[in-house]
Amino acid sequence: MATFELYRRSTIGMCLTETLDEMVQSGTLSPELAIQVLVQFDKSMTEALEAQVKAKVTIKGHLHTYRFCDNVWTFILQDALFKSEECQENVSRVKIVACDSKLLMQ
Question: Residue 90's beta-bridge partner residues?
Fold first, then answer.
C-alpha cells in the first residue's frame, strides 16, 4: 500500500522526525531503521484516519489562495468557520492540503 508523506508535516509527525534525528545522531538508531519508522508512521496515520474518523465538518471562509500541483490541492482560507454537529470554531487562517486517495491504490 502506498502512502502520502503528508502527515509528517503535522505536529506529531514533526516531533517524531526530530526525535528520530536525535536518535540517529546519538547512534541509538540506525538511519535505515529511522526511515522504516517514518514509513510505518505514514501507513498508520493513513489507516487510522480512514478507519476511525467518522465526523463530517463544513468549512466556510474567504478563499485567499488555491493551487493544484502533482495531484495535490492546497487551499488557504481566511476567516474560516469549521462547523460540525457538536460545535463550531472560527479560525483566522488555515491551510488545507488535499490528496486523491485513489492514488494510494495504484
Answer: 81
- Give the whole-angstrom CA distance, residue 78 versus residue 32: 41
Q: Are 3 and 104 in contact (CB under 8 A)?
A: yes
Put simply, whether the predicted model's pTM sits higher than 0.70 gets the answer no
Name the strand (E) or helix (H) holding 91. Answer: strand 88-99
With residue 32 as reference, give the H or E element that holds it.
helix 31-52
- CA 87, 92, 97, 100 dihedral sign is positive
Identify which of 50, 31, 53 has the alpha carbon closest to the alpha carbon of residue 42. Answer: 50
Angle between helices 31-52 and 11-26 (to 10 degrees): 160
pLDDT tens figures, 36-73: 999 999 989 888 888 998 889 999 999 999 999 888 89
Amino acid of residue 40 = Q
